[in-house]
Amino acid sequence: MALTPPGQTLAPVLMTFFAAILWGLWWIPIRYLEGLGLSEGQVAIAGNLGAMLATAFYLILTRQMPRLDRRALCGAVLVGVAVSSYSIAIVLTDVMRAVLLFYLAPAWSKIIEWAFLGQRWRHSSTLTLLLSLCGAFLVLGGEVSVSQIGPGDILAIVSGIAWAIGAALVFTGGAAHAMSVTLATMTSATLVAAGYMLAIGDSLPQAGMMPAIGLSLALGAFFVLPVMALTMWSAQRLTPALLSFLFTLEILSGVISGAFLLDEVFGVVQLLGAILIVGAALVEVAIALRARPRHAPGLL
């Protein structure tokens, strides 16, 4: 399998850093919209729908016909499952707990690359995996218990697994425009959110909630869409494990913003965890930049 050459790796790495920071702040508008009276399902479906409609509008304006092969389409659908599951999990459980359980994704990604993508399991793989997971554990104070698993926790785990598999399929899929992948992703996320609402018997928003719904649609179009497009663009160019490790930086922005806005603890232990997470990401980046594969996949 051909990976991206060093000269073409730095840009998606930087874009992923930026996207990860923004995803780490995504809990803020979600919690705000919940405070306006929207349920977790309503927040998820409106935000994803706004991003989906804006993507479709962009493709129409630019006269682009969405084209995806089966592998890339399946990957986009699974990433959509991950997006909706994560958005709902943030409402149903603690922000930090949801983030930690989602970020078992690097472990799944490493296993997928080794078992299904033909990548060798190196000592560096074990090192980055341990650094990332230990760092995530410390960031949450070393007090996370899995003895009581709630619906939000399950959704966060499902989100991480779906992300890892979806990213692998998008990376190994055929050539496709990033916005086509994004459209499939947001359509999947919208349908998953709608299915969740039907499954729990969630009611449609009342007339008085229309301003909140409008705000949620706008956030989908102007926040979710750009960040998701960057994510999908990077997912086509970075290996699943590298992508997932870089996205562990979302833990930092999520935890730090939570510490300031929710008075959540961020002391010496959390700082040590943050250093481990950044260290894991830097190791993966260094390995990727030093790699010299045969050729780069044509993705656009």
TrEMBL record:
Position of the signal peptide: none
TM stretches of this protein: 12-30, 42-61, 73-92, 98-117, 129-148, 154-174, 181-200, 212-230, 242-262, 268-289
Keywords: Membrane, Transmembrane, Transmembrane helix
Domain of life: Bacteria
Domain named EamA: residues: 13-140
PANTHER family, per the entry: ACYL-MALONYL CONDENSING ENZYME-RELATED (PTHR22911)
UniProt protein name: DMT family transporter
Organism: Roseovarius pelagicus
